[in-house]
Write a structure and sequence with these properties.
Layout (H helix, E strand, L loop, with lengths): L6 E9 L2 H14 L4 E10 L7 H7 L5 E5 L1 H9 L7 E5 L2 H14 L8 E5 L8 H8 L4 E4 L2 H13 L7 E3 L37 E5 L8 H17 L4 E5 L16 H5 L8 E4 L3 H5 L4 E4 L4 H7 L4 E4 L19 E2 L1 H5 L8 H6 L13 H12 L19 H6 L22 H29 L2
Helix pairs in contact: 3-4, 4-5
């Protein structure tokens, strides 16, 4: 019997929210060489958006180990000689990526062999392009989720004289699912219609899904407007199911802060019976979606990948602050008035192809370049030291503040008083930490809006 050629690959993923854990863990699996047996260790960066057990369960990715850490604890862990990871995926906001890169550069200084470092973006890059990219510079691979992003990333790096060789084109790692066929028949395992007798009479109801976002739009007026229009659409089309797909439950945080959750706003509305709130995995919701509506959510790309009719709303304007400007040229921009009248969008094929949506069936090859690059780098005798563009010389007024937020000094070393990693927090400290996080979330969603309204009086 021939010997097995499967190689063991140890991968660490550091993530700071549920959506970034989803991106990081799925990316680790997508870009790993095909002949690898992966051991995946998850690290959750402690902060306001640290995912709850329910959010982690919803993502559905299983790690061989999973623990909550600070940046300093993570760096001390990876600085140990016995933690010989092959690949480290940094699924973090830009400032945290930069801090960890500097910390790892110091921790691995002088090592003959070090892990490969990969980072990127969880979705559409529609704001702070230069800032976010330069904060990610220094990783061995900076993943771009589309051809358009890859071109923009290289232009930014080359424009400031930084090495652009790390930019590697891939696609969003969570695309998938069956290609849409109009109004599929009801199936017994459909979780949203299994208790609906009318749905079992041949075909399920036409289903409209609004994919909500935590921070877009931000103000009460605009969020109330969107909710009212969604409810109005449900009333105008009583034969349709109208679903409001929410990212998190009250008290939970995701990548962005949500001060005005729709769950709270809907309490003051009077929605019809064919309107409901839904949670859960976006892919499962898309399994029964006939029309996906959003402001600028990455869910639009998931929907386009499946060829589901997809609308990006123009009701509140096409503006950078909303992120829907990214969809100019897509053919997907439309208003609720148009949707109420029966409009069906037709996406522009060329635009879709440039966004990494891979609706043409090329998705499975979208990660080949990254796999090949990782295979080559892992086979190298020695990798060069991590060398971020930002240093105390190139950004003396910017970098120290970024590092200090994660208890690191200008040279990437832990500052005095930084959390120790050599002991587990006591039960009392863990309880206090959970209580503090809950109080913060309560303050964001309950107290802050009240204070803001009082200030406007």
């Amino acid at each position: 019997m021939p010997a097995s050629t499967t190689k063991s690959l140890r991968v660490a993923v550091l993530a700071d929210s549920d959506t970034r854990w989803k991106w990081g863990s799925l990316t680790a699996n997508r870009v790993s060489p095909a002949d690898s047996d992966i051991r995946l260790d998850g690290y959750l960066l402690r902060g306001r958006a640290t995912p709850t057990a329910r959010q982690l369960e919803e993502v559905g990715v299983r790690a061989d180990s999973l623990r909550e850490v600070t940046a300093v604890e993570f760096l001390r862990e990876l600085g140990k000689e016995d933690h010989a990871y092959d690949v480290v995926v940094l699924a973090l906001v830009g400032g945290a990526v930069q801090a960890v890169l500097h910390g790892l550069a110091r921790a691995w200084d002088g090592r003959a062999k070090r892990p490969l470092v990969v980072t990127g973006y969880v979705g559409v890059v529609y704001e702070k392009l230069a800032d976010g990219l330069l904060l990610r510079h220094g990783a061995d691979l900076v993943l771009a989720n589309s051809r358009q992003d890859a071109d923009r990333f290289r232009a930014v790096y080359e424009g400031v004289g930084a090495d652009a060789g790390s930019v590697t084109e891939v696609a969003l790692p969570f695309l998938g699912g069956a290609t849409y066929t109009e109004n599929d028949p009801y199936t017994e395992n459909d979780p949203y219609t299994e208790n609906d007798p009318s749905a079992k009479q041949g075909r399920r109801p036409y289903t409209v899904v609004f994919a909500a976002q935590p921070s877009v739009p931000e103000n009460r007026k605009d969020r109330t407007y969107l909710l009212d229009r969604l409810i109005r659409h449900a009333r105008l089309h009583p034969d349709r199911e109208v679903l409001l797909k929410l990212r998190s439950r009250p008290g939970e945080h995701t990548t962005h802060i949500e001060e005005l959750p729709y769950q709270k706003l809907v309490q003051k509305a009077d929605p019809p019976a064919n309107f409901r709130l839904v949670y859960g995995h976006m892919g499962e919701v898309l399994d029964r979606t006939d029309l996906l509506v959003t402001i600028s959510s990455t869910a639009a790309l998931e929907s386009l990948h499946r060829r589901i009719p997809t609308v990006v709303l123009s009701d509140l304007g096409v503006r950078e602050a909303l992120g829907n400007h990214h969809f100019v040229g897509s053919g997907c921009l439309a208003s609720w008035d148009q949707l109420d009248a029966g409009h069906r969008p037709a996406p522009d094929a060329e635009w879709v192809a440039r966004q990494g949506v891979a609706a043409d069936g090329s998705y499975e090859t979208a990660f080949d370049a990254a796999r090949l690059r990782i295979t080559e780098l892992l086979a190298a005798d020695r990798l060069p030291p991590l060398a971020p563009y930002y240093t105390p010389v190139t950004a003396p007024g910017y970098l120290p503040g970024i590092l200090a937020r994660h208890h690191l000094g200008p040279d990437g070393s832990p500052l005095p008083g930084a959390p120790a990693a050599d002991r587990e927090p006591s039960p009392v400290r863990q309880i206090v930490r959970r209580a503090a996080r809950g109080a913060y979330r309560h303050g964001v969603q309950r107290v802050a809006p009240v204070i803001r309204r009082m200030g406007e009086l």
